[in-house]
Structures are given as C-alpha cells and as structure tokens.
Fold this sequence. Notes:
Layout: E1 5-8, H1 24-33, E2 38-41, H2 47-57, E3 64-66, E4 71-73, E5 79-82, H3 87-97, E6 103-108, E7 111-113, E8 124-131, H4 134-137, H5 140-150, E9 153-161, E10 164-171, H6 176-187, E11 194-198, H7 204-207, E12 212-215, H8 221-226, E13 229-230, H9 238-246, H10 256-262
Parallel strand pairs: 1-2, 1-11, 11-12, 12-13
Antiparallel strand pairs: 3-4, 4-5, 6-7, 6-8, 8-10, 9-10
Helix pairs in contact: 1-9
Amino acid sequence: MTHKLxxxxxxxxxxxxxxxxxxxxxxxxxxxxxxxINITLISARAWKDQEIILNLLNLKDFYHVLENxxxxxxxxxxxxxxxxxxxxxxxxxxxxxADFFDDIGFCIDSRWMKEYExxxxxxxxxxxxxxxxxxxxxxxxxxxxxxxxxxxVTVGVHWTNPKWAVTLISNKKASKGLGLRYIxxxxxxxxxxxxxxxxxxxxxxxxxxxxxxxxxxxxEPELKRIADYIAPPVSEDGLVEIxxxxxxxxxxxxxxxxxxxxxxx
Length: 265
C-alpha cells in the first residue's frame, strides 16, 4: 500500500510541551517528508496559533483541521467548513458546568478567549473546561455523560495530568476524525492510504480514518491501545523516527502529490 497522506497532531506530537516551535530535527524531517507525501496538521489550536506552525513548516498549501475538528482550512487559507455550538446552548452549558470546573475558555473567531460577552454576535466553536481540583474531577464524568444527551455537543478530554484536566466541548458533528475524513474526500485519498500520528485522547477519532495508527511514546493510554506502532516520545523527536520509518526512503517522489491537490480545487 502506497501511503499518500500523513495526518499529524501538533502539541505533544510535532511540538514539545511548553514550546511553540518544533525542533530543528523535526522541522527538517517534515519538510523532507512533504516532498513525498501530503501532510495535514490536525489540532485543537485556533487558526492564528496553527498558522505559525504551518508557516514554519511550509505546509500552508494543503488542507488542515483546526479547533479540534470544528474547522477545515483549504490551501488558499479560506474556511472550508465550520461547526459551532448553538448560541442558546453555550450559556446553558456554562451554567450547569460552573460548579465542576475552575476555568472556562471560549474559541471565538479562531481565537481562544477568557470571556464570552456578546452571545448574539460571538460564535463559539469550542468550549474548554478546566479543572485544577481532583475532588471536582472525580465528579466530572457524570456531568460529561449528561451533556451530549441534553445538548447538541460532543465531549472529549484533551489533556490530563495529576494536577489538572482539560475537557473540550464542541458541536456533535465535529471531531478531528471527521475533519480528516473531509480532507480525504476532497483530495480523493482513502483511509488505507493515510497515516495518522497523535498523543492525546482527542486524537482517537483521527485514528478511525487512518490505515496506519501511530502513537507517540508520551501518548495517553487509550491511544496507545489502538496504535499499530508506538514511537519514541516527543521529547526525543519521535516524529523523526516515524518519518524515517514510514515515509522517507520508502516512497519515490510521485506526481499524484500535485495532481491530487489540483483536482480538489
């Protein structure tokens, strides 16, 4: 099977924790790989934050998934589609969640904000619910189970560690996996022709649309359980090994890279 698409998460996969720039080894490896295979970045980042990485890696001339699957950007930088949380539900979710979380973030107009001041005009694509209290965290699963039953949203735990947890709330018709599927249809690339790499629970839906599922060494256990291959952690530039093993040297340069993209515009 010739693989034609490499789908990469950003934070914890391309970029190390507490940084905003991939290492030189990772940058070089991605640029090398992009000569042989299409690369899409699939992230929870808002556009402005993701654009920084796309520019650095010279990857803007393709489709990319933003904000945990709520948006897809095309090679021209235009918004292909957007799925948001209905305005009337945003405040309701905030109200029922307030006692369980210590902080709430709003992704509005492709920027993460701390305030939601104008419900009539501000479109929220994603809510970020943050808990710093283990006592509260133990009660959260019951709440999260109820949200999709009452509202048109989906729930996913994005980051966890012993001190805090971040839960992302988005439109039930949005996920990283559905964003990847949209791109596959646009460029006529199949699931079997796709390699996906990630580290978080929110990357699990992405793996559903990949023929090869790869987890970073620092990945969440649930992602490792479904992975075909576990690479070294991001702290050791594990993505370089992935590219060397699955892309560079495995496939010759081919014309379908250019032709598949041209045919989709």
